[in-house]
Fold:
Amino acid sequence: MNDEINSADSSAHPASVHTAVATDLTTIEKLDSEKLMHTYKRKPVAFDHGQGMHLYDTDGKEYLDLLSGLGTMGLGHSNKAVSDTLCDQSKKLMHVSNLYHVEGRGELASALIALYGQPGKVFFGNSGAEANECAIKLARKWGHANKPAADTIVTATGSFHGRTLATIAATGQPEFARPFAPITPGFAHTPFNDVEALDVMLGEKTIAFMIEVVQGESGVWPATKEYVQTAAELCKQRDILFIVDEVQSGIYRSGKPFAFQHFGIAPDIITSAKALGNGFPVGATIARTSVADAFSPGDHGTTFGGNVLACAVCLAVLDCYKAMDIEEHVTNVGAYARKRLAEIPGVCDVRGIGLMIGFTFSDFSAQECAEELLANGIVVNAIGDSYIRILPPLICEYAHIDTLVSAINAIIENKK
Ligand SMILES: *Cc1c(COP(=O)(O)O)cnc(C)c1O
Structure:
C-alpha cells in the first residue's frame, strides 16, 4: 500500500495528483458548456467564495447574495460553527450506511420532531425531491392499509415538488412532466386557493392532499388561510392525509420553524430540505407517528441519506438557529423588505412570508432587472419575465434590503 495516498494528511500528496482547476470565467464557461448536460442556462458569473451575506466571483468582485443558493444558505456563507462541524466530523467518520447506528441521527430526528410540534418519526434523504418521494411512498403505503380504494394524491396548480418522475407528476405545472411521458399515475391537480374546487376534488379516491403553503418556485404565492384551513378540515373529515411540502418554506424561512405554523393546522406529513443543511445536501420527511408506522423494514431506503456527516452538520445548523432570535429577526426584516419594495414605483404585487418574497414589475422585464442587478453586484432570481423572487440568508439585515431597494430604484429611473 502506498502510505502517501493513505495518509490522512493531504499535504503528503504530491502536487501532480491534483487536477488543475480553471479559475477564469471564460475557461469555466467553456468547460461547463462542453461537458455538462444542457439542463441549465447559467448566468455569466463563476463564484469562488462567500462570507455571510456576500459572494465573491473569480475576479474578486463582491455580490450581495439575496438568493442564498435557492434558499439553502440560511445562516449565510462560511458559517464558522457549520464549517468546523463539517471539518471535524469528516475527519472522524463520514459514512457507514443505514445498516448501522451512528451518533447524532436520533438527536437530529428529535430536533425536527420538536419543530414539527407533534409526536412523529423521521426519514432522512438527500434532497427535497427525495423527501417528497418518501412522503408519496409513505402515503400510498398508509393508503393501502387504511383506504384500499384510494389511489390518488391531489396537489395544487402552480406547485413545485421536485424533478424525479413521481415529483414532476405531483408538480402542478404540466410542462415539467410532459416531455418525460409516460407520466407517473396517481396524481391529480386542483386549482390553488380555490376552496370549492377542493371540496369537489377531495374524495373516496384521495389518499392525500399535498401543498406548499407558500408556492416558491412559481413566484412566491402564499395560500390563503381559508384555503389551508378548509383543506385541513376536509382531509380530517374524509380520512385523507395532509402533506405540506416545506422544502423551501421550512427551517425559519417564514419566520416560524415551518410555514404551516402560520395557518393553525397540524399536517400528517411534512418534508424539509433546502436550508436544513445550510448548503449540505440533505432532506427529511417527518410524519405523525401513526402514519410513519405504515413503513416496515425494507419499504424504503437510501445509501447516503442521514449519514453521520449530514446529521452532524444539520444539528450544528439547528443549534445556531436556537442560539439566535431568528423568528423575530426574520419576521421583522421580512416585513420591512415587503414595505420598502411596495414603495418603489413600478413594483407591484409584493407578496410572501418572512424572508420568502416575490414581486412583479408593472412595466418592464424582471429578467432584465435581475441581469442588471447581477451586473451591479446583487443576486436575485427572476422567474419568467414578470416575477422576481428573493430568498436572502436569514441573517439579512435592514441595510441589505436598503441596498436592493436603492439599486432597483436606480434601474427603474434609468429606464425612464
Ligand atoms: C426545491 C424544492 C423541491 C425540490 O428540492 P430538490 O432538493 O431540488 O430536490 C421540492 N419542493 C419545493 C417546494 C422546493 O422548493
User: Anything to note?
Assistant: The longest helix spans residues 128-146. The first strand starts at residue 47 and ends at 51. The chain has a mean pLDDT of 95. The two ends are 70 Å apart (CA to CA).
